[in-house]
Amino acid sequence: MSIRTGAGASILDDIEGLRALARSLVRGDSDADDLLQDAAEIAITNPPDDDRPARPWLVAVLRNRWRMDRRGDARRRAREHVVASDAEKRTSGVDGREADTRGDDPLDRARTLERLSTALVALADPYRTVVIRRYLDGETAAQIANAIGVPAGTVRWRLTEGLARLRSAMDEKSPDWKRLLIPFVAVPGAAVKTKSTVGIALAVILFLCAAAGIVLHLTRTPHVDSIMLSPGSGSAVTRAPTVATTAPDGGAFAVPDPLPGQGRALLVSRKATGGEVTGRVINWSTGSGVENAELTFAPTDGGGAQTVRTDPRGAFVLAPPSAGAFSLVAVSATGFLPYAPELMHSGVSVNLAADRAVDGLTIFLFPAVDYGGIVVDEKGAPVAGAKIHLLGTPQGEQQIETADTEWTSDNDGQFVFHAADDAVLEATKGKQRGWGRLTGDVALTHRMVIAIGDYAARDLTIKGVVIDEKGQPVADALVRAEPVAFRAPPKDGPPIGKIERSTAFATSGPDGTFTLEHCDNGNYDLSAEIDGSAPSHTRDVVGGTASAKLVVEAGLPLAGHVVDGEDQPVPAFTLLVAKRTGLLREVVVARSLVAPDGSFNVHVPRGDYVLTASSAGRAPSKPVTASAGDTSAKLVVTDGATLRGSVIDAETKQPLPYARVMREMGGGGASAQPANAGTVTRDDGTFELTGLRPGPVSITIAGGEYHPKIEAGMTAVDGGELGPLVVALTKLKDGETPTTELVGIGVQLTADNDSLVATQVFPGSGALAAGMVVGDHIVALDGVLVTELGMEDSIAHIRGTPGTTIVVSVKRGEQVTPLTVERKKITPQ
């Protein structure tokens, strides 16, 4: 690079200083130069925020670039080919003449700027407000957030969405409109920073608007954030992807997808030597397409990886030169948490067949929302200078660089962090420490409190080995340590079972050995899994153990097909295989699959299993029982019912966009393709939730800064419609803890082998009035055994409308007593 000015020069100088790191990551000076060049491109085009130190950020950029290059050299060769081709076109032009990088025609450039100004004026609020305040008024995200009364993370999201909408509107008419900004940034001495190019462009827009007599009316109306629930619960949401259409006057505008995030994947015959998959990457909080997301698919036979990028609408196409099996090993995009499971252990598999295409696959990414944390001592006073770091997530899917997983509390004990749902954070100051989990309440309030005290350090490890049936070491097995409840208090310090514990992950080495870190002295359930073998489990391993042994068996195949109601193959689905004892289910296999023929084939230990399948836009299959070795299982997903409705503010009656609507129960699968995706409300607060399984319906509704709600009392019929349902959410008051509003009998329940056990009976509830007490075992509802209903339908039966009753059969000792219990509105404390 020959131009070294302003911020660009600083970044280049810092990157040059990282040459030693680059050499340690690759082989030889030439490879180091390639790595530094890639990092420089990223740094110049996507620079860090002004208040973020450049060097640590650049280290993360360099390491990320190396990691992605390591996963797919084919991608780099393809990119270099494209860059070379583009460079040739820019210098020679398509017809051999020198190309004009300033635009084909000055008048065309002026017209494009005019369209850009029109697009800004037409941009809906609140996006227009934050875009103008950020790029015209020069305010930071924090300043804008303070002025309009929303979190800084909301402002950043609105900026991202606003710019995406502007790009989308412009790209319909002029895909190369960004080239028009070149004259404004190629000024000697100017800061070479991509963000500033947008600001300069908008300055031109402001001038054009003024010349045209256009007045921009800026509002200060706060916008409602969407809530992010736990991926482990299968809670994934999309907002309507926008599609281009034509206005009566011939201009372009965007209309919402009629079924946000619920489009069905379809099988299509199309000439494609290696088969084909098309789909979209979607922001799971908003449903908008994620532009320039990078998806890496690795073949299971160890060949070259295939990497594709999304267009401005989030669309992508995977069309490898030859058919085969692939795993989705990484998805990343600026401003989003990456989907980056342990290498070779992805939860999303793609099988391609020649001349067969699967169209309409949806992949979800989670935005890197700004959460506020505060570290306090045992008296509640803020703790400055505490060190906070991310211990991990239950899914182990977001492997983020160190620079993005460590923070320090300021003088007020506060820090800002990004993490996936259910992530556990540890804070330490001297010998004091504490832990916090990113629960649904934190996602709603954007605030986590970590109280530190004299707790025992989590500095223990669990070491062991993974072997096969012959005693030979098994390399590259994914080992998981899931914390279980303490059987007794630990020897030193307070019971750790009362505070947050994290799941630990490791991959076995060539000799089969593994080390799980950040463990406490409690008990863990260990598991090991590797493709082509049955998963292995070992119970109650104590932290500090140095000789754990996991035996991975070949197991037996469990195979079959997923079809629709017309017995046609379903080409994309999430498969759950579970061991079942009464109401208890232990999932042993959770896999999202793309298969043109709807087939699946997994390996499990000997025994009986319950199989279910979920597919976007369809109702989940009924549970099917099969034994290990069965290769003819058939799972049927039907159309299900559709619920129509709207979500409003309980006080103002105004519609709430981006509220999350989904089935109350059901989940599993990879976060990139969860089994219970649900939907999200549109700008006018309306929604359609499709694929509701026949029977009683129970749904959850949640919106950022609002108390969530559960609605029930509806019965679905396959192919039928429900609603319209109007759901009013109550806004959170300052400092208020979110509580779920629902209608039920007023009992907190947990599953036992053949019953639901009451662990709490709420004051004023129908259950209390009917004489239910803690410890009661519910064995039947309205005369139907709960083991026949299953957990999901049992809970849906208990839900209902106020004033109705249900007969609850309660077992105490050997006696079963039927109780008639009234359903009432409940707000758990």
Considering the chains and any ligands shown, give keywords for the structure.
globular; 6-stranded antiparallel sheet; 829 residues; disordered N terminus; alpha+beta; 47 strands; 8-stranded mixed sheet
Would you kindly provide a written description of the structure presented here, covering whatever features stand out?
The protein has 829 residues and is α+β, with helices and mostly antiparallel strands. Helices cover 21% and strands 34% of the residues. It has an eight-stranded mixed beta sheet, with no helix packed on it. A hairpin with a 2-residue loop joins strand 27 (572-581) and strand 28 (584-594). The radius of gyration is 28 Å and the shape is globular. The model is unreliable at 1-9, 73-104, 172-256 and 486-498 (pLDDT under 50).
